[in-house]
Amino acid sequence: MTQAAVRVENLWKAFGRQVAVAGVDLTLPAGKFVGLVGPNGAGKTTTLSMVTGLLRPDRGTVEVVGQDVWRDPAEVKARIGVLPEGLRLFERLSGRELLAYTGRLRGLPGTEVDKRATQLLDVLDLAGAQHKLVVDYSTGMRKKIGLAAALLHNPEVLFLDEPFEGVDPVSAQIIRGVLERYTASGATVVFSSHVMELVESLCDWVAVMAAGRIRAQGPLAEVRGEAPTLQQAFLELVGANGRDTGSDLDWLGGGTR
Ligand SMILES: Nc1ncnc2c1ncn2[C@@H]1O[C@H](COP(=O)(O)OP(=O)(O)OP(=O)(O)O)[C@@H](O)[C@H]1O
């Protein structure tokens, strides 16, 4: 059996009376492209934040590449890359400066940082914008420079929260190519998304989350089961099939006020 990249046991987190994560157990295999899917408010971001050492759990354990994240967060953080939701970047640096700074923070030698930054900027089609300040980057460019920063130290596991949100199809294709190449080398990608078609075409492993719990996890074909698409399987798993789609909104449309 291959080693698990991520192992989560009985993970809990509440914000006041709102329980965001209610006893999550997850085992994600190494070397896979893993999709964490779930409706809005399911607890995906909260789970990823606890798994990556950004948010302390109320209860439960998290192991990444065999190490307890909350016993020694710094040690684990050196081995992972993270593209968090609502990524905050150093806006007054240029894209290249941001990578140079990130690389030095990661303890890489300057020449290596320069080499890797040049290659990542090229592959991600940011070479032309490398001297522009990050504050002037578009949403898609921000995702791409964030991804470059997360990959710079060649992490073993990469966590991405909604990496394709606000990204045009050309940039999405570029990001996808980089990630496929990365997993082909044995590394693991864990990403959250609402876009089922994307998850279905990219992932070999899926975890479905709703209301703070995992509803299903396993190889894509297993989670999809008999359903024609992952979207269908997802709607059934989260109990959204047949939900009223707004029949009360009889005033909407038709031009009368
Ligand atoms: N800092 C916070 N303070 C209070 N409540 C929070 C906080 N962060 C998350 N929550 C609540 O926890 C629940 C799970 O939120 P979370 O952001 O983890 O869901 P999500 O699956 O990532 O949703 P989305 O797909 O909409 O981004 C929601 O009910 C949310 O309102």
From TrEMBL:
Pfam name, any one: ABC_tran
Localization in the cell: Cell membrane
Membrane protein topology class: Peripheral membrane protein
InterPro entries in the cross-refs: AAA+_ATPase (IPR003593), ABC_transporter-like_ATP-bd (IPR003439), ABC_transporter_ATP-binding (IPR050763), P-loop_NTPase (IPR027417)
A Gene Ontology biological process term: response to antibiotic
Keywords: Antibiotic resistance, ATP-binding, Nucleotide-binding, Transport
Principal subcellular localisation of the protein: membrane
GO cellular component, one term: plasma membrane
Keyword ATP-binding set for record: yes
Record flagged with keyword ATP-binding: yes
Limits of the ABC transporter domain: 6-236
A single GO molecular function term of this UniProt record: ATP binding
Record-linked PANTHER family: ABC TRANSPORTER ATP-BINDING PROTEIN, DOXORUBICIN RESISTANCE ATP-BINDING PROTEIN DRRA
Name this polypeptide is given: ABC transporter ATP-binding protein
Organism name: Streptomyces spectabilis
